TrEMBL record:
<keyword id="KW-0804">Transcription</keyword>
<keyword id="KW-0067">ATP-binding</keyword>
<dbReference type="GO" id="GO:0005524">
    <property type="term" value="F:ATP binding"/>
</dbReference>
<dbReference type="GO" id="GO:0003677">
    <property type="term" value="F:DNA binding"/>
</dbReference>
<keyword id="KW-0479">Metal-binding</keyword>
<dbReference type="InterPro" id="IPR003796">
    <property type="entry name" value="RNR_NrdR-like"/>
</dbReference>
<keyword id="KW-0863">Zinc-finger</keyword>
<protein>
    <recommendedName>
        <fullName>Transcriptional repressor NrdR</fullName>
    </recommendedName>
</protein>
<dbReference type="InterPro" id="IPR005144">
    <property type="entry name" value="ATP-cone_dom"/>
</dbReference>
<keyword id="KW-0238">DNA-binding</keyword>
<feature type="zinc finger region">
    <location>
        <begin position="3"/>
        <end position="34"/>
    </location>
</feature>
<keyword id="KW-0547">Nucleotide-binding</keyword>
<dbReference type="GO" id="GO:0008270">
    <property type="term" value="F:zinc ion binding"/>
</dbReference>
<keyword id="KW-0805">Transcription regulation</keyword>
<keyword id="KW-0862">Zinc</keyword>
<dbReference type="InterPro" id="IPR055173">
    <property type="entry name" value="NrdR-like_N"/>
</dbReference>
<comment type="function">
    <text>Negatively regulates transcription of bacterial ribonucleotide reductase nrd genes and operons by binding to NrdR-boxes.</text>
</comment>
Length: 165
């Protein structure tokens, strides 16, 4: 590991410990040239396995690119796309798997995208879930409507306490 101070190509590990419950390893390093110390964090690559069986590192910008296409003409900005990609990565990492099939990445995209923009969500879902007919759209739209208009919260149960004094 190159020294970030003097750019000496070599450094010595003086301490190594696991962090984040073993998900990452932090190494304290010392530069033999300038003597300064710095820390590196090593993290396993999160791999996405495509249908072809080929795996590649999870790439947030790929998520952004896919979602951006679905968001064309929609009031969604780059910050929101970046945030969505972050949420997707967090969701996948939270599963604790080192490798995930690509369709799980798609699944992880659907939920936050639905919150972000329903039209973009429909576009994305139509490709991702391979809608084959208008009926597929109708069903999905019915579900979206049920979420938005049917948002009348069920009355709080007796335990919820309609706190009448
Ligand atoms: Zn140095």
């Amino acid at each position: 590991m190159r020294c970030p101070f003097c750019h000496n190509p070599d450094s010595r590990v003086i301490d190594s410990r696991e962090a984040d419950e073993g998900a990452t390893t932090r190494r304290r390093r010392s530069c033999p040239q300038c003597g300064r110390r710095f820390t590196t964090v090593e993290e396993a690559v999160l791999a996405v396995v495509k249908r072809s069986g080929v795996s590649e590192p999870f790439n947030r910008s790929k998520v952004v690119a896919g979602v951006r296409r679905a968001c064309q003409g929609r009031p969604v900005d780059e910050d929101q796309l970046a945030l969505l990609a972050q949420q997707v990565e967090d969701t996948i990492r939270a599963s604790g798997a080192a490798e995930v099939p690509s369709h799980e990445v798609g699944l992880a995209i659907l939920r936050p995208l639905r919150e972000l923009d329903e039209v973009a969500y429909l576009r994305f879902a139509s490709v991702y879930r391979a809608f084959t007919s208008v009926a597929d759209f109708e069903k999905e739209i019915a579900e979206l409507k049920a979420r938005t208009t049917g948002g009348v919260d069920p009355a709080p149960g007796p335990a919820g306490g309609s706190a009448g004094t």
